[in-house]
């Protein structure tokens, strides 16, 4: 039975570790403030960030029909709460 050197990983484990490190660096670049976080905190921040992005998408999807309606009725930017353009 041969022994591997201390601290050495089998080739598959080493490749997997490199892949994980690459993905962590990518997350650190994508998540605001992620570059200064350790992986544990980064994963929590990533989950929060995903929820925030989903909320933003939901809000924007709800706004599109309203904005389209306002645009079709000649009222877009500069309208007051009654839908009348201000002077």
Verbal overview:
- With 87 residues, this protein is mainly alpha-helical.
- The chain is built from 2 helices and no strands.
- The chain has helices at residues 11-30, 39-72.
- It starts with 10 loop residues before the first helix and ends in a 15-residue tail after the last helix.
Question: Main attributes?
Answer:
rod-shaped; single chain; nucleus; 87 residues; BHLH domain-containing protein; mainly alpha
User: What would the average pLDDT be, to the nearest integer?
Assistant: 84
- Tally the beta strands: 0
Q: DSSP strand (E) fraction? A: under 5%
> Kindly, what is the distance between the CA atoms of the first and last residues, rounded to a whole number of angstroms?
88 Å
Alpha-beta content class: mainly alpha
Order of secondary-structure elements = HH
Estimated helix fraction: 55-70%
Protein name: BHLH domain-containing protein
Subcellular location: Nucleus
Keywords: Nucleus, Transcription, Transcription regulation
Main location: nucleus
Write the layout of secondary structure elements.
Layout: H1 11-30, H2 39-72
Outline of the structure:
The chain has 87 residues and is an all-alpha fold. 62% of the residues lie in helices and 0% in strands.
């Amino acid at each position: 039975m041969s022994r591997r050197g201390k601290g050495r990983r089998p080739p598959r484990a080493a490749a997997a570790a490199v892949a994980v490190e690459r993905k962590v660096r990518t997350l650190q670049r994508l998540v605001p403030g992620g570059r200064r976080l350790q992986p544990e905190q980064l994963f929590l921040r990533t989950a929060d960030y995903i929820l925030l992005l989903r909320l933003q998408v939901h809000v924007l999807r709800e706004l599109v029909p309203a904005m389209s309606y306002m645009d079709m009725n000649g009222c877009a930017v500069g309208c007051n709460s009654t839908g009348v353009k201000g002077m």
